[in-house]
Design brief:
The chain is an all-beta fold. The chain has one domain. A 4-stranded antiparallel β-sheet has the order 4-5-6-7, with no helix packed on it. A 3-stranded antiparallel β-sheet has the order 1-2-3, with no helix packed on it. A hairpin with a 2-residue loop joins strand 5 and strand 6. It is globular and about 35 Å long. The two termini are 24 Å apart.
Length: 83
């Protein structure tokens, strides 16, 4: 998903058996991994102002929604449990 200003992309990449969230410049430069915890992080979506990325995190049979600041941060905000 493209950053609201169009200069950055949030995506997921498979590594070590689970998906993680990454950002990358729209020109392909500066790939940055923004998650690295247990579970498979998927479906990244930018907030309207580009300050945060929401994503789903799957651990076992449980899926939750989290929000993380778009710059690299070790802290997620838990939003809701889906199942």
């Amino acid at each position: 998903m493209t950053f609201p200003k169009g200069d950055k992309i949030a995506c997921m990449s498979l590594g070590k058996g689970v998906f993680e969230i990454w950002t990358i410049g729209s020109d392909g430069a500066n790939p940055t991994q923004v998650t690295a915890d247990p579970g498979s992080k998927e479906n990244p979506a930018w907030s309207p102002d580009g300050s945060c990325i929401a994503f789903s995190n799957h651990i076992g049979d449980k899926t939750d929604i989290y929000v993380i600041r778009s710059e690299v941060s070790p802290h997620y905000g838990h939003i809701m449990e889906i199942g």
